[in-house]
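input
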Amino acid sequence: MGQFAASLGQRGLSAIAEVKRRSPSAGELRPDADPAALAAAYERAGAAAVSVLVDERFGGTWSDLRAARAASAVPLLAKGFFSTEEHLRTARESGADAVLLLLRDLDDASARRLMEAATALGLDTLVEAHDAEELGRAVALDAQVIGINARDLATFRIDRGAQLELVARAPRDRVVVAESGVESRAQGAAAELAGANAILVGSALMRARDPGEKLVELVSRPLVKVCGLTREEDVAVAAEAGADMAGFVLADGSPRRAPGVLPVPETMLSVAVVVGEAPAEHAADLVQLYPHEPGKVRGRDGVLLRDGEEVARVIDLPWQEDDPTHLDRARAAEGRLVLAGGLGPENVRAAIEAVQPWAVDASSSLEISPGVKDHARVRAYVEAAR
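output
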């Protein structure tokens, strides 16, 4: 495993930040893009790697790769339509640490030959698949870094749902990269929870006023959840404020019981909050499950589930009780942590600094009355948390 693969395989969600001036599907993105300046900015913003388009259809050249190499020490991915060993040698000579291989354009024999040639040159390979058949081929070829592209390169259509299904099916002993279609933290988190080690982001960065700042936004944690939502107007305010997750309580007996999982924009993930057992069918992206506790609406700590699989722990206060050891308990927890209980605009930043959670969750402190949000407090909480 080379420097590129090792960098992507580190703990948490990594990002490959892309340099491309145009896209066949979107047209001109940033015609005057300076690959050296962008690579340096991406490195400062924490990119695990930088992808540089070297194909003229994307406004790229090999000179762009050389410029990025001169300006940055971060691992570089040469991205183009490579089919010969000469392409790989040029990539290596231009400063690449890895190359893209598209299974759409390569049969197994050609892909294997190029993978072996890349290894001999000291290059990692990002082997890209966009459907189940290609994913199976990538696994059979023993590709160590597998890209799952949400964009069909024939139609340019983005299908994030299909991408996430493939990410979830990829072997966990490989480095899995979710490519294309990530424009918000929630979309990146969806890929992360499905099993992706990294996201590859191009268009969203190139369209941004400050690409480095946008990259920081996409991968920064914690995510921010507003829970106890019962009205569409409150969902809209939470989304406008920049919340990443919207929680809908479906437990009987709760004063914040929602009429169901309300629609959320693509910039958010919906979370069904339930007690006892996860529903067989629900419309939410995730389920937040708490145990039953006699005499109370729910038990204390819960779990966050994706398709029935635990992806995070929820550390909460006792139901309607105080606990001075709450943050100490949370700080000792391992893995992804959703910190809940007693959070609001006044204390969420201090709690984040103390615990460093994956997500924060607030509900009752943001209300005018049970289930009705105070819009000013929602905005203040999200701003303080982000």
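quick obs: The radius of gyration is 22 Å.
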